Amino acid sequence: MIDVREQLSHDGAAVVMLCSRLGLSDPIEPGGSPLTLKEWNALEHKIEDAGLGSPVSLLGMSAIDLSQRLAVPEADAERFAQLLDRGGAIALELEQLTASGIWCLTRVDSGYPPRIKNSLKHQAPPVLFGAGDSSILERPAIGIVGSRNIDDEGANFARRLAEKCARASAAVVSGGARGTDRIAMQGALDAGGYSVGIVADSLAKTIRQSDVRNVIADQRLVLLTPYRPDNAFSIGGAMGRNKIIYGSSDYSVIVSSEFEKGGTWAGAVEALTAGWCPLFVRATEASGRGNQELINKGAHALSEPNLADVDDMIGWMKENSASTPRQEMLAFS
Fold this sequence. Notes:
The protein is α/β, with parallel strands linked by helices. The protein has 15 helices and nine strands. The chain has two domains: about 5-110, no CATH class; about 130-320, Rossmann fold, CATH 3.40.50. α12 (about 260-275) links the parallel β7 and β8. α3 (about 65-70) packs across α4, α7 runs parallel beside α8 (about 180-190) and α11 packs across α12 (about 260-275). The longest helix has 16 residues, at about 150-165.
């Protein structure tokens, strides 16, 4: 088991200061909000263009120095300096998180999940928090997602697919939400397999649940979130974690989706457009218009006979999917 907690580098610590809400009180002081993904991507390139080497080089610089070296407005430099001047508060909070079983990694750290970085590229979250055995993230993985209100046929399909993943030693990736997500993740675990949960609400609260703790201790479940570990659930957070489900997966399967409605549809369309991973959709008479329209948009069909006859699901999906488009490279890759 890899101890990810020891892999947060000095560069990673600088990224946490700049991009996370750790060590910040609510409400956040004016000008002190952490960088958004778009802002961090821009700063990455400025650090590189300025010949500063890496994020840790910013530590100790004054706002004036930051403004001059990075060629940014003084207001931006003041914000960077303010964010970088909270190392003590962040160190204390990270220590408390570590004691509770939560680790932290950034996009510049060697332990950051390579599949997420390679698939999402500049859309990969700058900071990830997690709990559990990170080596599970190195396994072949199939994402299984769908509606919260799923019918019996869809639930049975998700469960059987998860069981096939378990038998093939492939991890099931999902969002942990009621319905399809939990059915798929639990199906893999019940079959002795592995699950990866991308959570949108409080990671700290989730790992205090006894059933979750037990499976994490058994080294068969890892949880990830791009949000502060005590983050409250929000619709925006749930939508934002969709890309990490696809980015964590070699292939993904939509079990059920409403047409042009809901997070499953939006996430699937975004994944198809971005090419994060090959996308398959349950194709049965009862699977509904949403599933069919996703196939019309370029997703691949996964039928009941396919599910029944195929043992090596990863191999079958590789043979039955096309290559995905290349994306912009990262500055610090």
